[in-house]
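Can you give me the bound-state structure? Components:
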Amino acid sequence: MRRKVIIANWKMNYDFHETTYFIRNFLRIVFEKKINHKKEIIIAPSFPFLHISNQILQGTTLNIAAQNIHQKNKGSYTGEISAYMLKSIGIQKVILGHSERREFFLEKNNILLEKIKIALKYGLNIIFCVGESDLERSNNKQFKIVQNQLTETVFHCTSDEIKSFYIAYEPIWAIGTGKTATSEQAQTMHKFIRSLFLEKYGKNISNEISILYGGSINDINAKNLFYQKDIDGGLVGNSSLNLEKFLKIIQS
Ligand code: 13P
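Here's the bound-state model for the whole set.
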């Protein structure tokens, strides 16, 4: 069955105290108030706090994801962190291909494919992001861009490997801008992405793969977005840093 998923991408926000305070509070509210969210919930804090966050969530249904990995498993890559290391502290998921990684850290599709391969080797689930820029959309190139991003990366994987993926459609113009895609724009792209999976991997996989929307999701627009047929949840940035808003989003 296709999973409904909400992922909090905290990016480079929150220190140790803020991270642990948020997660403990969130857990307390979700479980004490028995909040009925029916969704898989994943939180992606910064690297130094992955271990403690994972420990706090032990024995719950909530999960932790890393925001990135290096494409090698070890070696002389000062400052980098690998899938091999994450695996050793019990992390099971990683976000790859985020547009901020593509833009600020020049991660091209060939590098992302290497990251995918090493993540799979260490048994990590991958939240893989795709999405077009404002200019690309104004030139009506959004479908071509997203198709390329998938063809050059995810589509190199076998049907078996694809079971480890979540796909996140995050139009760059909607990230952190307050200008969310309309439900219609998002649904059209999600339907297109699902059709690409149908073409490449067949009906079962295209029906089962969770495709999440990301880009200025908030507690007001979430419901309408998640209501769309091919939108299986969200990858949330800013609004996931606010406990009240995030609680509303998981219940949307
Ligand atoms: P915002 O929700 O802040 O637009 O960020 C979206 C995002 O980039 C999640 O990965």
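A couple of observations. Residues 9, 98, 170, 175-176, 214-217, 235-239 surround 1,3-dihydroxyacetonephosphate (CB under 6 Å). The longest strand covers residues 125-130.
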